[in-house]
Amino acid sequence: MRGTRTDARRRRHFRVRKSVQGTASKPRLAVFRSNKYIYAQVIDDASGQTIVSASSRESAVKGKTLTVETATEVGTLVGARAKDAGVSVVAFDRGGFKYHGRIKALADAARESGLKF
After folding, report:
1. What pLDDT digit, counting tens, does each position of 35-65 carry?
2. pLDDT tens digits, residue range 16-27?
3. Domains contained in the chain, CATH given
4. DSSP of the chain, one letter per residue?
């Protein structure tokens, strides 16, 4: 029996998470994309703490549909907040999603905001 697309994404995500770990010096930038919103978090896995986060549900971005432009705004937000929190280097966790479209737009915007990965 075949699984669903969500099951396949979760398998890919577990495979990625085997090698991507967030530490205090290099936290993990985790991205999740739903059908309506996109979320990004900078996470220190060693302590289990979320350092900063941004999403398309926030008032700065809210009211817009989920497009590449919205993902770019979220990437810029999370990059700026991470820089304010003293984070400059992260490990990118695409969450099992393909690296193109909205995921790529968020990553590129975070890089332009000053994050290195």
Report:
1. 999 999 999 999 999 999 999 999 888 778 8
2. 888 888 888 899
3. 5-112 (3.30.420.100)
4. ----HHHHHHHHHHHHHTT----SSS-EEEEEE-SS-EEEEEEETTTTEEEEEEETTSTTTTTS-S-HHHHHHHHHHHHHHHHHTT--B-EEE-TT--SSTHHHHHHHHHHHTT-B-
Give Cβ neighbours of residue 16 (< 8 Å, ≥ 6 apart).
Answer: 93, 94, 95, 96
Residue with tokens 């669903």: 4
CA 102 to chain centre: 10
